[in-house]
Amino acid sequence: MSFLLGFQQYLIMFGPTFAIPVILSPSLCIATNVVAKGQLLNTMFVMCGASTILQIFLGTRLPIIQSGSYIYFAVAAGITSKEPCQKEYHVLDASGNNVTQDWDPNWHKRMAELQGNLMVASILQMLLGAFGLVGLLLKIIGPITITVLISLIGLCLAGVAANSASQNWGISLLMVVLVTLFSEYLKNVPVPLPYFTYSRAEGTKFKVAWVKLFSTLSIIISLIIVWSLCGILTATDTFAEDDPARVVDLKKKVDEATWFYFPYPGQFGMPIVTVGGFVGMLAGVIGGVIESIGDYYACAKLAGAPPPPKYVLNRGILMEGVGCFLTGMCGPGVGVTSYSENIGAIALTKVGSRTVIFCSAILMLIIGLIGKVGVFFASMPEPIIGGMYLVMFGIIASVGISNLQFVDLTSSRNVFIIGVSMYIGLVVPMWAEKVIVDPENKAMKTGNEEFDQLVAVILTSGMIVGAVIACFLDNTIPGTDKERGIASYKLATKACSDKKLLKEIYYEPLMEKIATRFPVLRKLPFVNN
Predict the structure, then answer these.
(1) How far is CA 398 from the centre of its chain?
(2) Which residue ranges in the chain fall short of pLDDT 50?
(3) CA dist., res. 255 & res. 454, Å (int)
(4) What is the Cα Rg of the chain in Å?
(5) Given this model, what pLDDT does residue 214 score?
(6) Which pLDDT value is given to residue 126?
(7) Cβ-count burial of 504 within 10 angstroms (0-12 exposed, 13-18 middle, 19+ buried)?
(8) Tens digit of each residue's pLDDT (9 = 90 or more) over 77-86
(9) Which of 427, 180, 399 is nearest to 290 (CA)?
(10) Other Cβ atoms within 10 Å of 333 Cβ, number
């Protein structure tokens, strides 16, 4: 049963995680390179599995999955924008002939820059957890800043969703309709699943279990239906030859991929660190920390556990930093964070078990090591992915808005801060992409490449722009804690006073064994004192 529930958790995180290398590929100039995207997908799943195991055994000890964070996409686009993608690249084929292709043969250099900057930024995340600085961070970042930060992640990706969906609106909207139908209208409709049981006393018995399948597998079911439809319309030549919704011949692409793919440190080259890239990744790391802390409290509540004490929060952020460092070393240059969608599954199944999440992590590792699986899913038609974007990015924006439950929305102060910061966070990147990133525009260039990149990374990331403005205004414009939502947020995260219960749930054997032998270690903020 634990394995089946773990498989369910894996399926829930599969759709959004699968989209990560696909969204990242245009920034790396490999949007049409199926094999490269497959390698990124395999690496992403292996890193998610490893990070999840670290979190449930050495981190918070909560049944929580670690996966790639959408926070880093705008940052990645800013870091790689100094060298825009070209329409054609001239390369030599196996016979030595000069040919053209539409993806960058030197894309590894772009990836190495993402990896190096993420590694350095994740070291600071580890220090936040190791020295207990998370509490100081939360003193200046309240629900208003969190709302703007997370909402702008989804809103600023609207262009990405539009570009993918507009390639065939019929297929994209069909994907949206089916996901909506299964996840909302049919979520409480049980489906019969036959199975067999065996016991010595009764022998083999045929049984039927009624499972609410649509609520947990809405994206997967929709994906199978629409992808199959695209295959049928391709086989009957209903789609034009140049229609992006056509299903490509996978045989050649799958044959190019190896059966097993083992991600390793430096597989995309020596990591590169730049000032602008580091600042951008640091902003992404801080955003991930804030998002994860909220997820820790939500997971504990739904799993029937008391709110995690400060040392558990610090331990979780420390291990999350280690996970981000691993994804920096091996790829795909996107940090990990706690996954809200899987926390929602705990509310549906009423099962909050570390064993279940461990089974899910093992599945991530196994699937991630099969190279041909990554190439297969990376070949999905772009309009189907566009339909997934329309749903997922909208949900991300609404998750950010949900933090306003703590805020007094009758206050003109709060309405002003939220409106102004979000709107500027949308407008400035639009301007920056046209003016700063444009290689032909010299007016905004200082001549210092590092400084120019730093400005580009900051101003092209709506998440950074909006969150900085919101944080500044929220901490400088007069307002009470109740008005700002700080008081309600503190009440929702009030620590449990039952030390025996806390030890039973959040006990971490390895660190406790070391701290028992060396009592001085109990002074560390991430150790139970």
Answers:
(1) 16
(2) none
(3) 41
(4) 24
(5) 82
(6) 94
(7) exposed
(8) 777 767 778 8
(9) 399
(10) 33
